[in-house]
Amino acid sequence: MEVAGEEPLFAERAAGIDIAKAGVEAAVRVPGPGGRRMQEVRSFKVTRRGLEELAGWLEGHGVTRAGMESTSDYWKPVFFFLERAGFECLLYNSRAVKAQPGRPKTDKADAAWLAKITENGWVRSSFVPPAQIRVLREYTRYRRRVIQARTAQMNRTEKLLESGHVKLSSVISKLHGVSGRAMMNALAAGERDPKVLAQLARGTMRRKITEPGEALDCTFFTPALARLLARMLKLTDELTAEIEGPGTEIAELCAPFEPEIARLDEVDGIARRTAEDVIAEIGTDMTVFPTAGHLVSWARLCPQVRESAGRRKGRNATGDGNAYLSAAISEAVIGSLGTNCFTAARYKKLIRRMPKKKALVAAGNSVLTIIWHLLADPEATYADLGGDYYELRDPARQKRSYIRGLERLGYHVTINTINPDTGELTAA
Asked: Is the pLDDT of residue 102 over 70?
């Protein structure tokens, strides 16, 4: 047997902070006599004065690194204040620092445990973007929440029309488009003649003028429903204006990141708004994600298989991840489907053998990988592989697949090649 020396500490003077809504318990661990570790725990309020006292106390002990648990949003004022004070702050996922069996569970004990985790480096810190990105994130997340609220309001409007037996959404694909909105405004104003309402159709909808006339039978659409419809349309307009409202502030906050946004905007399916959302969630410094796989794993866009005794268990996903980033990446994939690009080809290839949501995640994996490379290398440029990537990658395999498909249908297939210069058939 050999004497096993203890592992060196990551921080000689470390602190652990257990955070609640109104106060925190802070523990410091510092070197003591005889090579032992000394520990002290104190309570502080989560106010400006309380946090100043906490920072001064930590400085008095020579602490340089402070670790804390991500408790709701209560960690933010503590983390940001200590970060501005010059401390190296680490944020731990609550599942990674949960109480161990047999260890007492109190706020002071939790603080001491967090300090011990911090000094030994047992748990990896969560990603917290820099202050400039955090401000941008608040704006982009607010904009996305308002967009979601407007979408919910539009859905409620459609349900109200269905309640009044107005089947307008059955003949108009975009209920809140120019034609649909003109008809709903007239309904809210008291118009009940289906022919008059149908005449409000615009563009291609005028070719279906008979169908809207039948769908706009207002027999059961009462004045009370009309008043409620007017309120709903007014709120939809207010939400639309609110979506555009933060645009100026977001543009100002994105000014330092214009080169990165421009590069992301070149990717098929990624519009400027999507690029702004992506930058707000992951920043532009890709050194925090050593590889594209690390970023994809952090975003929870990579599958994970749990298998035991030859049987797969649980969901084949690593968790919920960042909902805002996932929404932006999903929008990029869906936006690419109308183009002849690699992302669209990958998605269409995958939906043949898996559910659409799983295919969306897999295609999003590719999009996020592209984003990582564009942000990690300032000299990188986007070059799409093309919508025919899978066909050109292995033409022989594609040929065999098509032949087998025709043979399964009962056909006998003879293959001839075409001269690319003359277009004439040649022997296989």
From this structure: no
Average pLDDT for 208-212: 62
Integer Cα distance of 116 and 288 in angstroms? 24
- How many other β-carbons are positioned within 10 Å of the β-carbon of residue 28? 25
Amino acid sitting at position 342: F
CATH number of the 14-120 domain:
3.30.420.10
Residue 312: pLDDT over 90? no
Locate the domains of the chain by residue range: 14-120, 133-247, 257-376, 394-426
In tens, the pLDDT along 285-300 reads 898 899 998 898 888 8
* SS3 annotation, the chain: CCCCCCCCCCCCCEEEEEECCCEEEEEEEEECHHHCEEEEEEEEECCHHHHHHHHHHHHHCCCCEEEEECCCCCHHHHHHHHHHCCCEEEEECHHHCCCCCCCCCCHHHHHHHHHHHHHHCCCCCCCCCCHHHHHHHHHHHHHHHHHHHHHHHHHHHHHHHHHCCCCHHHCCCCCCCHHHHHHHHHHHHCCCCHHHHHCCCCHHHHHHCHHHHHHCCCCCCCHHHHHHHHHHHHHHHHHHHHHHCCHHHHHHHCHHHHHHHHHHHCCCCCCHHHHHHHHHHHCCCHHHCCCHHHHHHHCCCCCCCEEECCEEECCCCCCCCCHHHHHHHHHHHHHHCCCCCHHHHHHHHHCCCCCHHHHHHHHHHHHHHHHHHHHHCCCCCCCCCCCCHHHHHCHHHHHHHHHHHHHHCCCCCCCCEECCCCCCEECC
Residue 55 has pLDDT above 70, yes or no: yes
Alpha-carbon distance of 221 to 165, in angstroms, equals 7
Tell me how far apart the alpha carbons of residues 322 and 283 are, in angstroms, rounded to a whole number. 13
Q: What share of the chain has pLDDT > 90, as a percent?
A: 25
Within 13 Å, how many C-alpha atoms sit on residue 267's CB side?
32
297: nearest Cα among 260, 327, 322, 328: 322
**Mean pLDDT lowest among 58-62, 93-97, 233-237:** 93-97
What residue type is assigned to position 111 of the chain? A
pLDDT (average), residues 259-278: 91
